[in-house]
Amino acid sequence: MLKIEGLKKSFDSLQVLKGIDLTVEKGQVVSIIGPSGAGKSTLLRCINYLEKPTEGTITIGDVILKSGHNRYKKVSALRRKTAMVFQNYNLFKNKTALQNIMEPMIMCQGMNLKEAEDKAMEILTSIGLKDKRDVYPAHMSGGQQQRVGIGRAMAVNPEVMLFDEPTSSLDPELVNEVLEVIRALASKHTMTLLIVTHEMRFAKEVSDRIVFMEDGLIVQEGTPEEIFNSMNPRIQRFVGSVSV
């Protein structure tokens, strides 16, 4: 289970998160939507301490972090329970698709080369890139690079996978191949997924719950039906501006 209590984040005088409370059960798929600048990406980055929260508590399973009372070991334990897929792929340019996926298994989990290679090949096959095992990022499309990024996140068997607008850097014709990989993950319900996305039709389709954020706060959360049929005028305007 992921539990967030009283989470706040400020950058100097700018308060980006103003008090977030959110509980996500194991295996749930939760999409986070809302206008640009709402604090969605900052929320994800705080969950795995890429950004250090100003206030609040984050709990994932048996790891509890309270702002101002954290040691390196606790932060490391939290990060081992999460994996993040970024907007801009963040692949190692000097490593092949196979090596990019092997890297966290070897460096973070201490897996030997043979085990890591076997598992990485299983992952490449599952994301439809078996034939790209020896290809470097510069020779892959954006969609293929992002699928490798997802594969690298899958490699560490995280309890929580965080997707930060995973299709925002892609050309329109490449978006669906990435969404298909996320759909396959979501359908298994074996890990918790938090997805910041502007793909409204996709969010409506795959999510158990949807969270609408604006101005650093959660305005409403509920099932896709509750959010897309919300009586809140602001949410109506937002989802009404996108064909779903």
What does this protein look like?
- Helices cover 38% and strands 25% of the residues.
- With 244 residues, the protein is an alpha/beta fold.
- The protein has one domain: Rossmann fold.
- It has a six-stranded mixed sheet, sandwiched between helices.
- Strand 4 (55-60) and strand 5 form a beta hairpin.
- Helix 3 packs across helix 4 (113-126), helix 3 (97-107) runs parallel beside helix 5 and helix 5 (142-154) packs parallel to helix 6 (172-188).
- The longest helix is centred in the C-terminal third of the chain and has 17 residues, at 172-188.
- It is globular and about 50 Å long.
Task: Provide a compact summary of the structure.
This is Amino acid ABC transporter ATP-binding protein, PAAT family (TC 3.A.1.3.-). The chain contains 9 helices and 10 strands.
Strands, helices and their partners?
Elements lengths: L1 E10 L2 E11 L4 E5 L6 H8 L7 E6 L2 E4 L5 H9 L1 E4 L11 H11 L5 H14 L15 H13 L5 E5 L7 H17 L3 E5 L3 H7 L2 E6 L2 E6 L1 H5 L4 H8 L4
Parallel strand pairs: 3-8, 3-9, 6-7, 7-8
Antiparallel strand pairs: 1-2, 1-4, 4-5, 9-10
Helix pairs in contact: 3-4, 3-5, 5-6
